[in-house]
Amino acid sequence: MTSGHVLAVDAGNTKSVVLVADREGTVVGRAVTGPGDIYGADREETATSTVLAAVDAALGDAGVPASDVVAATCCLAGVDWPEDRALWSGLLASRLPSARLEVLNDGFALLWCLNPGGVGVAVTVGTGPAIAARGADGSTAAMGFWCQDALGGVGLADLALRAVYLAEQGLGPATALRSALLEWSGFGDVESLLHSFTRRGSSGSWCRAASAAPVVLACAAEGDPVSVALVADQARLLVDYADATARRAGLDLGGGQRGDDRVGRDAGEGGPLKHPDDAEGEGWPLALGGGVVASGLPVFREALLAEIGTRLPGAVPVVVEVEPVVGSLVGALGLVDPALAEAAFGRLTAASALLGERR
Predict the structure, then answer these.
(1) What is the pTM of this model?
(2) 333 and 207, same structural domain?
(3) Same domain as 97, residue 59
(4) Which of 75, 78, 199, 338 could, after both became Cys, cross-link 39 (CB 3.0–4.6 A)?
(5) Cα–Cα distances in angstroms (integers) from residue 73 to residues 13, 18, 104, 222, in the given order
C-alpha cells in the first residue's frame, strides 16, 4: 500500500473534528462541526449526520475523494456497546468504502497522544468524562456506562447547581456558588435559575450545564469550601474509575516504584512518553486531557494529580495538551503501517497546537 490518505475523527459532546492526511501524517484537510454523541443528541440521526458532514467537509477541504482513504480511526463519544460500534461502522463504511476502519469510544484518541501504540490509560474530562485503557498485549477497556456518577463538566455543574438549590432551602451550607451562578445565568434569584432548568420545554441541555463548569472552578480556586469539595470528589471518583478501567485492560496502576519527584508533567516537558517500555520501570503512562483539565484555572488538574500521586503509584501522569484528533490520526497511520505512526508521532504531537488554531 504505497498511496492513499488516512482520516481521523474525534467526536464529542461539544464538537466533532475530522482530519485528512497523507501517509506521512501531513494534514491536508480539516473540518469542525457540532456534537457527535448519539446518546447526547435529541435524535441519533442528528449526531450521525453531524459527524458524516464533517467527514465530507474534511475530504472536500483536502480535495481527496472518499475512495482514496485507505484507513480511518474514528473515536466517538457514545460508542459504548457493540450495537453503537456496528451503527457507526456501517455508516462510515458507506462513506469510506476503501478504508480499513477502526471505530472506538472517544476516550481512546488521547491514548495515541501518549505513544504511537496507544498503550496506557487516558482520562478525558470535557463536557462529559471518558476513560480508556490499552495494555501492552492490545487488550482494551473503556469506562462507558460503567460510570455511575455525575462527572465531567456537566456533572460538576449539575452538582454545583444542586448545592445552590439545597442551600437556598436551608438544607446545605452557604456557598459562593450562589452569587457566581446567578451572575453566570443572568437571573436575579435562585428560583428563576431552578425554573429555567426544570420547566417544561426548558433549555437545560448538556452543553448549557457544562458551560457553568468554569464558574465552579473559579469558586474552588478562590477557596469556596463547597466548590473545593466538589472538585475533590470529582478527582477521587475519576481516579477510582481510571483504576478500574485500567485493571480491565490488564494494567496495574497501584504497584511499581515511584520517585518523590514524579508528581506529573506536561507532555511538552521532554515530550510525551514514547512507550511504557522506555519508562525504566516508572509505571504506565496516564494521560489527562479535556477542557476541564486544560482550564486556565489549574485547581481541577492539581486535584487530579494529587489524587493520582497518592493512590496510583504505578501511574506516570502526563497532562496532554495536544488535540485528541491528533491521536486518532496517529492511530489511523498505525492501521496502514505501525512504522508510519512511529515516524509521524513526534511531529504530529509537536504541531498539534497549530492544528488547533486552524478553522
Answers:
(1) 0.87
(2) no
(3) yes
(4) 78
(5) 18, 10, 8, 41
